[in-house]
Amino acid sequence: MGLTALTALVAVAAVGCGTEDGADLVVAGTAPPTPYSGPLYIPGKAWDEEKDDRSELVNTGAAARALECDWKIDTAGGSEPWSEGDGGGTPEDGLRAYFDIEQPGVPREGYRVEREEDGRVLFSYDVDGRTKVAVIVAKDRKNRPGWGPETSASCDPAEFDPSFTDSQEYEVWTDRNGRRVPLTVINSSAGSAHCDWQDAHFLGTGEGRDSKLYARDPHGVLGTDMLLGTYDGDVTMPADAHDTGYRLRDWALWLTKDEGTAYVRTSDGVEAWPMVKKDHLCR
Questions:
Q1: pLDDT in tens, 167-225
Q2: Which long-range contacts (CB under 8 A, 24 or more apart) does 14-21 make?
Q3: What would you measure as the largest C-alpha separation in the chain, in angstroms?
Q4: Helix (H) or strand (E) holding 95
Q5: What is residue 181's three-state secondary structure?
Q6: Residue 9 predicted with pLDDT over 50
Q7: 268: exposed, middle or buried (C-beta count within 10 Å: 0-12, 13-18, 19+)?
Q8: Please, what is the average pLDDT of the chain?
């Protein structure tokens, strides 16, 4: 299903405004081995989620150019406008305005000033010396007084520090070698309490037209009209099923060739998760 569709099902809980547990929004940090040296302003380009490849996100502003992602860029683009009273007196205030205005599902602590140039400042959130979130704040743009966010971009959430992703509602799976897997490949989360689906669990694979979404629904909260099949918490693994290698806690994902049902092996046995019908999302 990919991260975009997953977020439509469950609102990722953002960390509280400012910092958490007294941690610093901006830290001194250490310069990365290869600091970003490109322009801090590039005219944005509209990006069509259905038609354009995700790699085209590099053309939606300068912040995306500063990223050092292992996988595809997850989000990138310009910020919503800010008005008098929204902008700040310092670049760090502009970064705070980014979180207030955009409410992004990215870490809210540990950012470092990477570049300052001509009324713009690049803040980066790094993991192992590589930039995973980039926010460019600007001062006194047209009809935008003070410091505020101009462009931002982020890598797949699976590239963030585990201490952050473990506090969120989405879940990061690993491969058979214990390496984290991008959410565009596989992702899962409990259902939204907003739709009374918290007793269900969703599992998405792939992205775009190749995406598939499965559901664990032991209490029948989703209703039969939503599922292409029935959840079964105790089945025999089909002979033609193969181990994908994807793991989350004691869950292991197995699939048959048609991928019509997700078979999840647990420490208690095997569960059959039916596919969710298209466009059946929490509104």
A1: 988 899 999 999 999 999 999 999 988 888 999 999 999 988 889 999 999 999 998 88
A2: 14/99, 14/103, 14/104, 14/105, 14/108, 15/107, 15/108, 15/109, 15/164, 15/167, 16/108, 17/96, 17/99, 17/100, 17/108, 18/96, 18/99, 18/108, 19/108, 19/109, 20/108, 20/109
A3: 65
A4: helix 91-102
A5: coil
A6: no
A7: exposed
A8: 85
